[in-house]
Amino acid sequence: MARDPVLETLRDAIGDTRVLTDPAIVAGYVGDWTGRFVGRTAAVVRPVSTAGVAAVVEICARYGTPLVPQGGNTGLVGGGVPTRGEIVLSLRGFSDTLSVDAAAAQATVGAGVLVSSLHRAASAAGLAYGVDLASRDSATVGGTVATNAGGLRVLRHGDTRTQLLGVEAVLGDGSVVSHLAGLPRDNTGYHLPSLLAGSEGTLGVVTAVRVRLVPATRARAVGLLGFASVERAVTAASQLRNGLPALAAAELMLSPGLELVIHACHLSRPLRGRHPAYLLVEIADETGVYAGGGVTAGGIPGSTVGDAGVGGAGIGGGSLVGRATVLETLADAVASLPGVQDASLAGDARGCRALWAYRERHTESINTFGTPVKMDVTLPLGVLPSFVETVPASVAGIAPEARTWLFGHVAEGNVHVNVTGTGSGGRSRGRSTGGDAEDRRIEDAVFGLVADNGGSISTEHGIGTAKRRWLPLNRSPSEIAAFRRLKQALDPAGILNPNVLLPAAP
Ligand code: MLT
Ligand code: ZN
After folding, report:
1. Confidence bin at 221 (pLDDT 50/70/90)
2. Which atom of ligand 1 is nearest to the CA of 360?
3. Residue 34: HSE in the Cβ half-sphere, 13 Å Cα cutoff
4. pLDDT tens digits, one per residue of 380-395
5. What is the dihedral of CA 436, 441, 446, 450, to 10 degrees?
6. Which of 407, 419, 457, 460 to mutate to test the pocket of ligand 1 (most atoms within 8 A of CB)?
7. Would you state the pLDDT for residue 425?
8. Is 134 in the pocket of ligand 1 (CB under 6 A)?
9. Distance 415 CA to ligand 2 centre (A)
10. Ligand 2: distance of its center to the CA of 460 in Å?
11. Where in this protein does the record put region Disordered (predicted)?
12. For a disulfide at 384, which of 5, 267, 379, 419, Cβ 3.0-4.6 Å?
């Protein structure tokens, strides 16, 4: 069989064992975990040093061979999948660098370090990392930078871009840019971390980052609240955000999604009855202004605190006269919140985790129902309730058999729209860029509705291959032209993830 000159040159540069072509191994890198995007590749390259990545990129630029950088492959828009036969450049080997500078409250982190490992390292130093997401045990820090991941605590700490003080990356010509000193104030020109965050591997391959850390959470309390309508839940989320400085998360769930999670994950019912809409809220104390310990909350109409194995800790102890615990604070806030029909609160670690499961396990539960068409959109809060009401009917008008699942980071106006049971099963193979005609009609309808209401077609998942055709709904021709000029400047050969983010050239 003829030897491929690109692969031969790559082997010479980084070693035989780092260029994987065995189909059984390569198969683990060509599909996304939702099953929606499946591609193909001749090879997966796994360099373990920045010089190795630079060599790979330089060789591919020389031969005009496209590359898809890949981290933990937990993305949801096909951005790390070789949909057109690109070589996969895996960064998972970059997991050795993880050093916490407690005095500066910063960490230097290799691209392949798992988000959960960074959490553990920060916690060991009495600090925390501000970005958290359900895929924390598989997602790599480099991947979350490339996609500018958001997750569950953006309300409190911002998205991944917000955490970045410095970046090391290989640009499309193989040159290395490295600025990892972590000076908190450093106003010396273009801020490459901001540019590379969310660039989805199209401008450079991130190999390491310097991130800020935040004070560790000393105590947290979580509440799951039932409402008669989405509108009431959204109003309550706004009131909590405006009046409760310790609010760390506010997540919207709907009755069908919660019932699905209960069924798929064999969880007990968190509240006595069913409600059309739910809020999962968390308050976190990082400052120690609250009294220690948890107490059983009271004063909430219909409260099921302590029920279903997920309720308040009832621990007591440590409560100081005149200082409320976080659980008491949450209980008071919930008690004075209009529209709450029922609530379950927890102030101990086990109870908080148990309540979070109803929200965090939405994605895996939806996947048991079929491969979803995933949309991830932001709406102005004023129109979010009517959007949530309109979308299922609009999807049903196109695909009567389909189910629409809605949930999201409501404090930031996010709704995750997942649709299962479409004609294609949501699956997109080979050269396809977004599923079959029915999927596309659904996406057209939902993204059209989003644009008509002044929203964004991507809150946090990015554009990837899944949404590139709809980018013009949110970005003007001059913005897209500026994006193309940036791409041309940093990746002159056009080899870095060329089939994501930017719409196909006209
Ligand atoms: C989440 O917040 O759980 C995910 O971003 C949503 C999804 O899987 O669609
Ligand atoms: Zn999300």
Report:
1. very high
2. 3
3. 32
4. 999 999 999 999 999 9
5. 110
6. 407
7. 65
8. yes
9. 8
10. 7
11. 419-438
12. 379
Ligand 2 centroid distance, CA of 409 (Å): 6
Task: Pull the structure tokens for residue 455.
Answer: 């929203």
User: Which CATH number applies to 1-216: 3.40.50.2300, 3.60.15.10, 3.30.465.10, 3.30.70.890?
Assistant: 3.30.465.10
Q: Is the CB of 361 under 6 A from ligand 1?
A: no
What is the model's pTM? Answer: 0.91
**The CATH number of the domain covering residues in 370-474:** 3.30.70.2740
Query: Is the CB of residue 161 less than 8 Å from the CB of residue 148?
Result: yes
Identify the pLDDT of residue 33: 84
219-360 under CATH 3.30.70.580, yes or no: no
- Dist. CA 416 → ligand 1 center (Å): 6
* pLDDT tens-digit series, residues 316-340: 333 445 678 999 999 999 999 999 9
Q: How many CA atoms lie within 13 A of 374 on its CB side?
A: 30
CA gyration radius, the chain: 23
Q: Which ligand is nearest to the CA of 359?
A: 1
Please report the pLDDT score of residue 182 as a whole number: 96
Looking at residues 249-273, what average pLDDT do you find? 97
Q: Where in the chain is the domain with CATH 3.30.465.10?
A: 1-216
* CA 416 to ligand 1: nearest atom: 9
CA of 165 to the centre of ligand 2 (A): 24
Domain with CATH 3.30.70.2740 in the chain: 370-474
- Spatial separation of the C-alpha atoms in residues 246 and 351, rounded to whole Å: 19
> How far, in Å, from the CA of 408 to the mean position of ligand 1?
7
Model confidence pLDDT, tens digit, residues 26-54: 999 999 988 889 999 999 999 999 999 99
Helix, strand, coil in percent for the chain, rounding step 5 = 35, 20, 45
Best residue for ligand 1 mutational test, from 34, 131, 160, 363 (most atoms within 8 Å of Cβ): 363
**Which positions ≥6 away from 216 have C-beta within 8 Å?**
122, 123, 126, 127, 128, 286
Cα-Cα-Cα-Cα torsion 137, 140, 145, 150, nearest 10 degrees, comes to -10
